[in-house]
Design brief:
mainly alpha; 3-stranded antiparallel beta sheet; 5 helices; 3 strands; about 45% helix
């Protein structure tokens, strides 16, 4: 007889500009978690290159696969579906904030520190010397 584990659910509640937004996501496989974390922490060029746009497409598709539900609505009160189509109708800043919150929740559940703290520590530990003129 085999064993099938239940996927952990994460309820993300936001404050500040996203106060009132509630998002439920499930845990993912290790490969999907690594993919989302890698794309979320990747530096993107301005304007985004074709590689950047491909990475963003994969990031949003990977995240949509773990998105269970959210209370997000369009200004007219129409619910935004918790699907890739729904994710892609939103502003990148909002979606990126939700992705980051999910990554933080998973990291904390694993006993780690939130991704934001890891990035801040990494940036603080990088040696920064002035570029030669």
């Amino acid at each position: 007889m085999g064993f099938t584990p239940n996927r952990k659910l994460f309820k993300l509640v936001f404050e500040g500009d996203l106060n009132g937004l509630e998002v439920t996501c499930r845990s993912s496989s290790v490969v999907v978690y690594k993919r989302i974390a890698s794309y979320a922490s990747r530096p993107y060029s301005t304007p985004p290159s074709d590689d950047d746009l491909a990475a963003l497409s994969d990031l949003y598709a990977s995240f949509a696969a773990v998105l269970v539900e959210w209370n997000l609505e369009e200004p007219a009160g129409v619910p935004v579906p918790s699907t890739l189509d729904g994710v892609e109708t939103q502003e990148p800043g909002l979606v990126n904030a939700v992705v980051e919150a999910w990554l933080d929740a998973v990291a904390e559940a694993l006993g780690g520190q939130p991704v934001r703290d890891q990035v801040a520590e990494l940036e603080a530990s990088l040696p920064m010397e002035p570029l030669p003129v």
